[in-house]
Design goal:
This protein is an alpha/beta fold. The chain contains 6 helices and 17 strands. The chain folds into 3 domains: 165 residues, 3-Layer(aba) Sandwich (Rossmann fold); 55 residues, SH3 type barrels, CATH 2.30.30; 70 residues, Elongation Factor Tu (Ef-tu), domain 3 (Beta Barrel), CATH 2.40.30. The N and C termini lie far apart (53 Å).
Length: 328
Amino acid sequence: MKKKVFVGMSSGVDSTMAVKILLEKGYDVTGVFMLLSNIFSEEQKRAKKIAEGFKIPFLVFDFRKEFKKRIIDNFLEDFKKGITPNPCVCCNREIKFGLFLNEAKKRGADFIATGHYIKKRGSFLYKADDERKDQSYFLWQLPSNKIKNLLFPLGDFKKEDIKKIIKKENIETSKESQEICFVVGDTIDFLKKKIKTKKGKILNEKKELLGEHEGVWFYTIGQRKGLDLPQGPFFVFKKDVKNNILYVTKNKDLLLKKEVRFKKSNWFIEEDFPIKAMAKIRYRAKELPCVIYKGKAIFKAPQNAVTTGQSIVFYKNKKLIGGGVIYE
C-alpha cells in the first residue's frame, strides 16, 4: 500500500518540485495550500492549477485566524518590546510543522512534505546540498519527535537545477516569496501602520545628543540606514526601550561580542555541555566555531551585531544539533 503524504503547496517552484519528486517515488500525494492571509488568493489559485496538472487531490487548510494570533500579533508585540523577531522560525514550529502536520494526520496522512532545502537522515536534520538555499536555520525549533513524520525531497538538489526541471515541464509557478510573507513592501512601513511612532533621542556612546528618531522599536542592532544623521555613517549599537533612547556609534568595535546569550533552547542531541560546534547568529551569517554552555555560546572570533530576538543555531558536521533565541 502506498504511503500517503500531504505536500504543502505554495505555488512556487520548490513545493512544485517536491510534488513531482514524491510522485515519481511512488507516494500517494495530496496537495495542500495553507491559507495564512487574504493576500495569498492568487497563490491559492495557482497552486490548485498546479495540483490539477499533476492530477492529485487538492485541499485548502484555512489557518488565517491562528496565523494572525500566533505569528503576526506576536511579531508586532516583539517589536513593541524592542526585540527583532524571526517569524519564519515560529511559523515553522506553530503552523507548517504544527497545525499542518496535526490536520494531515487526522486525515490519514503518513507524512507531510514541504519544499524546504534541508536533509533528513533517521531522526536528525542536516544542511541541504545547496548551502546558499539551506533552510535548516529556520527549523531548529521543531520537536524531535515530529521528524519521523516529515519529508524534505529537495535536500539533494541545487536551486538552479530545480528551476530548469520545472521550466522544462512547462509548469507556471509563482515568483519567489519575499523574506516575511505577510509583509507587502517595506517592513518599517508595515510596522508604522501597526505601531505608533514616538519621538525619542539619538545619542552617541558619550551620550551626546545627535538627533531624534520615531521609536526605538523601528530599529535593530547594527542598522545603518534610516538614521538620517549628518557626518555618518552611524550604526545602532544599543536600545533603551524603556526610555525610548537610541544609541549609535561610528566605532564598529562596539558592535562586536564573543559571548552570545540565548534562551528557549531546543536540542536534537544530549545536552552534555560544554559542546564544541559551529554556529550562526542570523540566516545569512557565516557559520563559525564556538563552545556552547547552558544558555550561552562563546565564539573564537567576535560576532557582529548580535541581535535580541534572532536565532542562534548550532551544527556539527552539517547536522542540526539545536538552537536558541538570542537575548542581551
